[in-house]
């Protein structure tokens, strides 16, 4: 069924009609995804961000009067999600540099290898506590429990790609 986003489709979407949502998704995903991909420099997170924008659209159904308000919501939400992702990437890079410097500092000191390893693991574990909940769960399952990405995805009921993105 081909969709043109008429007032009727918008009204059906607002009432929670999944078929109307599918039509909106098919209409806008081909333009929202490339927009996000450009913002996040074509990283694997672009698909997740674009999908999250549509999830948020669905969560806000019932608030839209016309196609233009849906389009505006999707692009604004996608832009905000992309900005948040870029901010997280910068924080992660900073943390990685700090961890690398800490490792170098530990190696140049008088500590024994066992002490260095224990201190390093302790600091990493403390830093992991500051991660968002899902990211922290993935960290623990991967690095503490030694689970593979597919095993983690299965356990948390998320995609393997999401696990990979969160680990990165």
Into which percentage range does the β-strand content fall?
under 5%
The tally of helices reads 8
Whole-Å distance between the termini? Answer: 39 Å
Mean pLDDT: 85
N-to-C SSE string, H for helix and E for strand: HHHHHHHH
Rg is 21 Å
Which percent bin holds the helix content?
over 70%
Per DSSP E runs of 2 or more residues, the count of β-strands stands at 0
**Structural class of the secondary elements?**
mainly alpha
Q: Main sheet, how many strands, which sense, barrel?
A: none
Q: Any idea what the shape is?
A: elongated
Low-confidence stretches: none
Task: Walk me through the structure.
There is one protein chain. The protein is built from eight helices and no strands. Helix content is 78%, strand content 0%. By secondary structure, it is mainly alpha-helical.
């Amino acid at each position: 069924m081909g969709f043109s986003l008429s007032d009727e489709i918008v009204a059906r979407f607002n009432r929670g009609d999944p078929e109307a949502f599918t039509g909106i998704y098919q209409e806008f995903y081909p333009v929202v995804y490339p927009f996000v991909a450009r913002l996040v420099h074509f990283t694997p997170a672009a698909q997740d961000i674009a999908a999250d924008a549509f999830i948020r659209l669905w969560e806000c159904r019932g608030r839209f009067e016309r196609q233009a308000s849906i389009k505006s919501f999707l692009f604004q939400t996608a832009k905000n999600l992309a900005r948040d992702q870029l901010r997280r990437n910068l924080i992660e890079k900073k943390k990685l540099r700090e961890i690398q410097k800490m490792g170098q500092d530990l190696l140049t000191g008088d500590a024994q290898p066992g002490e260095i390893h224990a201190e390093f693991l302790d600091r990493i574990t403390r830093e992991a506590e500051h991660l968002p909940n899902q990211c922290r769960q993935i960290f623990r399952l991967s690095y503490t429990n030694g689970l593979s990405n597919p095993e983690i995805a299965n356990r948390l009921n998320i995609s393997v790609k999401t696990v990979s993105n969160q680990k990165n």
